[in-house]
Each structure stands twice: as C-alpha cells, then as structure tokens.
Amino acid sequence: MKILIYDTNNAFHTFGGKTTHALKLQQEISKLGIDIQFAQWWNKSQEDADIIHFLTPDIRVARLAKQKGMKTFLSFIFDFESNKSEWEKRKTILKNKIYDKLPGGFGLLAYWKAFPYMDKIHFMHRYDKENAFRYFPNYLDENKSILIPHAYDTADMYISKDLNIADMKLPDKYLISIANISLRKQSVKLARYAKKAQTPIVFIGGGNKQDAYFRMFQKEIDNQYVFYPGYVSKEWKDCIEAHASGYVLLSLGESGCIAVYEAAAYGIPLLLSDLPWAWGYENPTDIYFCKQEDEIKAVLQLKEFYNKSGKMDHLPFTAYTWTEVALQYKEQYEQLLKS
Fold first, then answer.
1. What is the model's pLDDT at position 105?
2. Taking a C-beta distance cutoff of 8 angstroms, is the pair 107, 113 a contact?
3. pLDDT tens digits along 65-98
4. Is 52 in contact with 4 (CB distance < 8 Å)?
5. Helical residues (DSSP H) of 136-286, grouped into ranges
6. Res. 216 pLDDT band, cuts 50 70 90
7. Does the pLDDT at position 14 exceed 80?
8. If you compute the radius of gyration of the chain from its CA atoms, what whole number of angstroms results?
9. Pairing between strand 175-178 and 201-204?
C-alpha cells in the first residue's frame, strides 16, 4: 500500500495544526508498515500510489487521481463555517447556491465540486460533518463519510527533565494558551480578559512581527498577567505545559484543534469558546465553555476557572494518541482498496 499526503499549504508560510496533522500521520502510519509519503509534484516515481490523502479539496488533482485509478481520501476542515451564527450560515448557503448556478465555468472550481471525486471524506468531529452536509447535501454521501479525531503524541511529553521552570520567571500557578497569535484565536481578547480577571496566562505560539494584530498583542504583555515566551522549543513547551494548572482557548473556529488534545494529555481542565468546535470532544468531564462575546461574563468565568484549575488524575475528555488514531486511518485505507 502506498499513500501520498497532498496539500497546497506551505509550512514555511503558516505552520499550524494542519502541518502537525500531516507530520503525525506520516510518522505514525509509516510505523504500521505502510509506505506513506508527502506528495512531490516533481517526483514521477510516486505515480504508482494507491491512495492520495488530501488535506484540501483540490478538484484538479482529485480528478487526475481518479483518471489514474487512484483512490482518494479527504480530511476536510470546515471550522469557520461550522462556527458561524445561524444567520451567517444561511447567507453563505444561499451564496453557494447562486454560485453553483452561474453560467459557464464560473462555479466549476468551487472547492465543494471536488467532493464527488473523493472516495472517502473524513471529518474531525460531528459538528463539522453536520454543517458540511447542510451546506452541500447534493455533493456529500453519508456512506462515504467518517469521523476520526485528532490526537496527542506521548513522545512530545515529559521531555524537559533538564529544564527548570523557575528560569521562566512565571507565577507559581498559571494557565496556558497554546496557539498562533492571531485574530481567529482571539489572543488579544484573551490577554485583555486575563488582566481584568487578574489571572496569569502564558501564551505560547508563533506570530508574524509584520502583522498589526501581533503588534497589538505584544502591547498587552505585562509579565504579570500576560506572559509570552514566544514560539519555544518542544522541550520548553513541555516544561511550561507540564506545570500549568489549566488551558484556555477562545478561538472562533477549529476542526478538533491539536493543541487542545495535547493540553488534555497533561491532565488539566480546559476553558474553551462556547461554540460548536469546542463541543465535539468525546466524553467531556472537565471542559468549561466561555461566553467569550460577553466581556463581563467571560472575565468572571476566567477568574472562576483559574481558581478551581489544577492537575487532575484523569483527562478532561477521551483523547487518543496518534499511534491509536493511525490504526483508524489504516483501517479506512484498507477498506478503500478493497472497495
């Protein structure tokens, strides 16, 4: 079995969850004896691939793959649309319908036109799937859709034994928020809420120094309630996360969010946006939902969360390792080749 992982996103432009997802898939699925490679546009030796695993719905490549007799598998991210307001969803659905009926070739390259060329479409949680089927009922097939969650990697945990958390000069008790500094993650809003709630939060994640939003975030850093060591090494990330009492993310949209799985693996509670992306974690026990659009409520919730946060003897929801999840992908690949 030979699998190619295909995407149009470049890690050197935006390194994030999609890149981590691809790297972990290649790392763990290859351990199962499967030849899984990253698609290389220049490499003709890859033409004997059995399956192309798409991380973006590219109709041109999907159509060519089917012509070559390859099977197609799409991991579909629908985070923004799943988390829109009901009114915004209706507007987008109507806009898509109009776009669909435009004469000539205007609508031929719409991303959803790739769906019929996919043998299997994978969603990270049921809210993405439900909304995608609502948007594109004529392009998606229930029998071809599956759910596989994201995961965490035990090899990235407790690897900081030579580091001393005291060197970071952080408070004895603090929360963490691991995400790229961006408007979608609402980093500035969370930083401002942290100050108002007098709750120390350590932000870990990359940021574009040329970006106005990132510069706005930098102005919020006070090293009293808002700490930002930046994009740190895996060892320092582990050290900071291992000593945290809780995790916060007020993102406007995610498709699973690998950082949430990684935080959960340390046995700490989670405070997430009260939006569909945060409701899709399996068997939640210690996930709290923040009314992030209401500042008064959100600040109070953040303070309450901080006060009760702390290490637990269990995970806040059922989370799997990438090793376990790789077996689910392998099973799906095998089913595709048998069909």
1. 63
2. yes
3. 999 999 999 999 998 899 999 999 999 999 998 8
4. yes
5. 187-197, 212-218, 234-242, 258-264, 276-279
6. very high
7. no
8. 21
9. parallel
pTM: 0.93
Residue written as token pair 């500042």: 295
Long-range residue pairs from 252-255, CB within 8 A, at least 24 positions apart, any chain? 252/80, 252/83, 252/183, 252/184, 252/185, 252/186, 253/79, 253/80, 253/82, 253/83, 253/184, 253/277, 254/17, 254/79, 254/278, 255/17, 255/77, 255/78, 255/79, 255/82, 255/123, 255/124, 255/125, 255/128
CB-count exposure of residue 309 (10 Å: 0-12, 13-18, 19+): buried
In this predicted structure, what is the pLDDT of residue 113?
92
- The three state secondary structure string of 127-142 is HHHHHHHHHCCCCCCH
Give, in order, the Cα–Cα distances in Å from 58 to each of 67, 84, 122, 262.
14, 24, 15, 29
Residue in this structure with the two tokens 């916060």, named with its chain if needed: 248
Contact 25, 75 (CB under 8 A): no
Higher pLDDT, 210 or 288: 288
Q: How far apart are CA 272 and CA 248, in angstroms?
A: 6
Distance CA 101, CA 90 (A): 17
- Which residues lie closer than 8 Å to 121 by C-beta, 6 or more apart? 74, 76, 115, 140, 144, 145, 146
Tokens coding 45 = 């030796």
- Map residue 238 onto helix, strand or coil: helix
Angle at 290 between CA 133 and CA 250, to 5 degrees: 70
H/E segment holding residue 298: helix 295-308
Neighbours of 259 (CB within 10 A): 26
List Cβ neighbours of 237 (8 Å cut-off, separation of 6 or more).
178, 204
Name which of 269, 280, 272, 263 is nearest 298 in CA terms: 272
Contacts of 297 (CB under 8 A, 6+ apart): 291
Q: How far apart are CA 181 and CA 187, in angstroms?
A: 6
Tokens of 164: 């001393």
For residue 50, the SS3 value is: coil
Sign of CA dihedral 22, 25, 28, 31: negative
